[in-house]
Protein 1
Amino acid sequence: MTRTRVKICCISSADEAQLAVKAGADAIGLVGKMPSGPGQLTDTKIRDIARDVPPGVSCFMLTSETAATGVAEHLLRTGVSTVQLVQHMTLAETMSLDRVLLSTRRVQVIHVEDVGALDLVAKYEPHVHAFLLDSGRPNADKPELGGTGRTHDWALSRKIVEASSKPVFLAGGLNAENVGEAIAKVRPYGVDICSGVRTGGHLDPEKLERFMTAIRRADRHR
């Protein structure tokens, strides 16, 4: 049976990290400084939370940096070994990362706004370890780079999954009620969730358990 990996994003404390781990999360997301969106943490807080996450669970550090030196410095300050790049980078800066991040796993976010998202797969694929499809609007007056709570065109996301040889995570507006349909339609390697398992901004154990149960149910039919 194919198992869908689960990343719980917008983790705000060590207690939330442990709650996600106990629920069976494969990865947690720690959000750095962003122009907008929930869950933003200081570099010190990211470092402190990541330090206590057990082996076998990945820590993704979300950065809005778009220069190779900025990304590298952000990683040094936080001590995290997987970076989620939420903005687009020039090809020159992307290739520079190849030289400075030799042991760091890179996950490139593609905001699925229109069919142009498909063209980004070929651009980034030689330089990253995975993709994450989200519903942000990076070119808005106030850029949205994640945590929107909105879904996007899953048919287009499925095409991106089919076009990529790298693992693809699906994010954007997921919850216990729609994640089964999302998995069936997109066939992602993993799913990523922030607002769909929160109440009043805090990680909700009941919503989290329902979400994990829905994924296990969906996996039985993959």
Note: The chain has a mean pLDDT of 92.
Protein 2
Amino acid sequence: MKRIGLLFISFIICCCTLAAQTLAERLDAVVSSDKLLTTSEVGISVFNLTQGKQVYAYQDKKLYRPASIEKLITSVTALAELGEYYVFNTRVAYTGTITQDSVLQGDLYVVGGFDPEFMDEDMNKLAEAVHNSGIRSIQGRLVADVSLTDSIYWGPGWSWDDTPESFQPYLSPLMLNRGCVNVTVIPGTKGKRPQVEVVPESDYYTVCNLAKSYLPQEGKLKVTRNWLDNGNTIYISGNANYRCTKKLNMYASQDFFLHTFAYKLNKKRISVQAVAYGMCPNEATGLYTLSRPLTPVLKRALKKSDNLSAEALFYHLGIHHSDEKYVGYKDAQDVIYDFMKNEIGYNPDDYSIVDGSGVSLYNYISPALMMEYLKYAYSRAEIFRPLYEALPIAGVDGTLGNRMKKGRAYRNVHAKTGTVTGVSSLAGYVKAGNGDMLAFVIINQNVLKGKDARLFQDKICEILTH
């Protein structure tokens, strides 16, 4: 009994000691003891939004590459400048006249609105609208209007060797299936070629299937395209021993869109004689407009950390504030910097933001700057509500679906993740044990193993929940 009593007393003393520690002391203990920080750097900021006070800061003024938590800066600015009900429009219009025998004596235009959610079913709606107009032959040309943005299809500082991965599509005002195709490989009879299905269906690409079914000696299954030649031949090789789908980007997005639209029209027995690029005249007759609200774009940018969605928000900031055609990244950057200076109260000369997704090697921010965006959003219900709803939830969905599945952080942390080579970051909101809402920013730098940084961040989050 005495032994049990002593153990109980020791337990009570331990609990009282932990309770007596401040949040800052507990976080300091982690920072000073974690082996990860012997070879890497971290910047941390924690702010109590309920009480309106900073509760912890560690190297929060230093500059770091943010990776995808930069999407928070893009999203907050977009919600403030564009609004939750902003729309992305893709239009079809024509010049000339439609004759009684269903011939369009003029040009058919498809006008790009940089809609990152434009999918195969949307393309079908465009083709159906042309069919319903009575057009069966286009005597002129099918013209793609991509004058909304400049012709630079990657952001500054993007890594060239990230292609042909789907997370780095070729940017364009006309995007179909996020500029990518889904290649599904289905094994067949042993030793025979597997079945290959590519969606969206189009004549823009070709397929070279060299794989074999259930033959391990063929090596690992590989699905790629001849990207070094800017080609669109999809190559499948190796051993196909299970059904799998790989997403590849296409070179280039506007060509993929235009040629697939022509293909869809021809499938509907609408004759297309020629395709071209040009600007839709103001006097063109509107035929159909497909509108996309901002909310699904915001949700994909944050929940899935989708780079294209974030870049669409970024470029539309420039488009919304410019009367010029061919808007470039500097136009969007100007809006980001003006907002940073006038609304956030920080000097943009002290930071570098050149894209909307955080992919660029040229981006540099501080945890303190990111914290100000989180505080700004929280103080404005019309921004915080859609932002908070779009953030990944720990252990539940998005890029946090497989993290913090236990403990008090589970279903509590709503935050944006960030990962590029050497960088891992996490920023968002969490409720403390006393019900206070906290905002936090953690940016790990010079990290060889992203898993170690994620475990460090999860540990910090669990402490914040207590």
Note: The first helix runs from residue 2 to 20.
Protein 3
Amino acid sequence: GREIFRDFLRGEYSEENILFWLACEELKRETNPEVIEEKARIIYEDYISILSPKEVSLDSRVREIVNRNMVEPTPRTFDEAQLQIYTLMHRDSYPRFVNSPLYRSLSQQQTSTSGPQSAVTTAMVTVSSG
């Protein structure tokens, strides 16, 4: 489900949202302080920096929190930003995905092969549960 949703986001030119979310999840699993610092720097440069072509859309309050957290990065440095991007996907991108011809087609295929429970239906659940 996650890959199908990512493909949909790519078509909408908003793939960076799920890539950022996934990078944050990976950072949360890290325990080595040096690796945490390096991964946090990469995430910041790739998704937070205004110079990045993959910059995610964050409000100024969350951007300031991230900037403060970057002084001493931890696995939770991007929690506020990750929540804001998840909420954006949940409220905006995911409803469009569910109403897309791609989703409807896959859902119909899944229903005809395995009953009413569609694997595609779990795309955001899969995203939120890691």
Note: The CA atoms of residues 73 and 116 lie 44 Å apart.
